[in-house]
Design a protein that fits this description.
Elements: E1 3-4, H1 5-12, H2 16-25, E2 31-33, E3 36-39, H3 41-50, H4 73-80, E4 82-86, H5 91-101, H6 110-123, E5 127-129, E6 132-133, E7 141-142, E8 149-159, E9 169-177, H7 180-194, H8 197-204, H9 209-224
Length: 232
Amino acid sequence: MQLRMKDVAKFLGVSEKMVGRWVEEDALPAFRMHNQYRFNRVEVMEWAMDRKMDVRPDLSGDGDDEDEALCTLTEALEAGGIHYEVAGRDKAAVMRSMVEVLPLGDSVDREFLLQILLEREALGTTAVGDGVAIPHVRNPIVLPISDPVVALCFLKEPVDFAALDKIPVQVLFTILSPTIRAHLHVLSMLAHCLREPGFHAALSRKASVAEVLAETERVMARLEAPREPETP
């Protein structure tokens, strides 16, 4: 489902005028339909993540799969696994190593999946800054799986992903989903985690599986906690 100007303004917590300015001046992806801007949910999410902006978790929105039960980021990480010393000296090599460790069934063609990842990377870097990349953000990988899978890979050595901040990538997250809505939900949770210093510190020191999952749970608990009303 495409977003309208007011939807993007709501999700990013700004005015519609600011959204229009970002389209004109800061390359926020959009296209015109009946003389009005329309936006792709995943492209808006990617653009916001590149700029470390806060995005409301309901960016996943509604649609034909609105009754779909959404898993937590912790559950998706447990399903995908946390992998250490993933080898490779360039993008193609580390992405091949990443695909090899993904917990996928025999029905998934890993070579085809790798080619999808490489083609997406050729369109522009999936590095989101601070040494982190999320291959294939713009076009979600939707596979015949029951639940989303997030694989976290700590690279054996830093690799140049042509990141905007020029920092080589040391951490890869890969998201595989059964639906686009599930992909967006997991991606929004990951975006919140990446903005948290504690979570990012755990990534920087290549923390243990237990530490990464605990830090993820901490961030999710804080995000889901009801906000205290502001005092006058």
